[in-house]
Amino acid sequence: MSFPQTPITIRATLNRPDASSVHGEIVRFVIVLLAVLGMVVSTLALKVHYDDPGKEPCSINDKWDCGVVNHSPYAMMFGVPVAAIGIAGYLLIAVLAWLRLRGLLLLAVLGGLGFGAYLTNIEAHVLEIWCLYCVISQGIIAILTLLALVWAAWAKRRPATA
């Protein structure tokens, strides 16, 4: 038995979000959460930067030592610790995702990915020592970049609504 469409059922059907927008909101939420996680990891790296050498919780062996990396001359840019730059960058990413500014978000994550790749190159080829927090941060920004690309692509594929 079929019921006639009443104004209430028609309105409910029109207001129902499509799967694409629901998935887009989930991706946006995950981006914000990962950006907050990035801020936490960068804060831990900043703590290592200001701690006395030898007190690092991530000094694992001669190839993995956050203290060596965070006390090196490469741990500062223009007088600012790179971990503080990371905190600011992740905060910017979270705000841009929250405000649904996909284009600016994409620029921010690509900038963060490039900055992280530059620092990873220094760890690999200049210092030859890895910082666990830095590697985790690089993983986070790589995932954020993929998610931002997916989110932007979804926005382009969604049909325009009248």
Give a verbal description of the structure.
- Mean pLDDT is 85; it is low at 9-16.
- The protein has 162 residues and is an all-alpha fold.
- It has a two-stranded antiparallel ribbon with strand order 1-2.
- It contains 6 helices and 2 strands.
- It has helices at 7-15, 19-50, 66-70, 82-98, 102-127, 132-157, and strands at residues 76-77, 80-81.
- Helices cover 71% and strands 2% of the residues.
- The radius of gyration is 21 Å and the shape is elongated.
Reading the helices and strands in chain order gives HHHEEHHH
Q: Trace the largest sheet across and list its strands.
A: 1-2
Major sheet characteristics: 2 strands, antiparallel
How many structural domains are formed by the residues? 1
What is the level-2 CATH architecture name?
A: Up-down Bundle
Could you name the CATH topology?
de novo design (two linked rop proteins)
- How much of the sequence lies in strands comes to under 5%
Number of strands: 2
